[in-house]
Prior knowledge:
Keywords: Signal. The protein is mainly β and about 120 residues long. It has a single domain, classed as Immunoglobulins (Immunoglobulin-like, Sandwich), CATH 2.60.40. About 10% of the residues lie in helices and about 40% in strands. The chain contains one helix and nine strands, in the order αβββββββββ. The longest helix has 14 residues, at about 1-15. It is globular and about 70 Å long. The model has no long low-confidence stretch (mean pLDDT about 90).
Amino acid sequence: xxxxxxxxxxxxxxxxxxxxxxxxxxxxxxxxxxxxxxxxxxxxxxxxxxxxxxxxxxxxxxxxxxxxxxxxxxxxxxxxxxxxxxxxxxxxxxxxxxxxxxxxxxxxxxxxxxxxxxxxx
Length: 121
């Protein structure tokens, strides 16, 4: 009886459809405004999905000379509809001890996300 139950369980599990979502490349263009912050030397982003990580900044680059707008383009391979990030300035996280930013991927392959450091949308 136990053998029959085990065989039925194995056979039944083979008939179930897969529950894994298909993954796609999703690109986010991050634009961060640091206007009004003193002595900005380094601007970064950290996050949940590779190539981002919570342990190390991915550097954002200024959009022009003397610019207060910084930019990074990040492509991740994911099956999720959102990602989570936080920005850093001079190695310091925004929103200390608060929730991460949640970026919802758009319907296309590329989403543009505009933000101001330490200001909620």
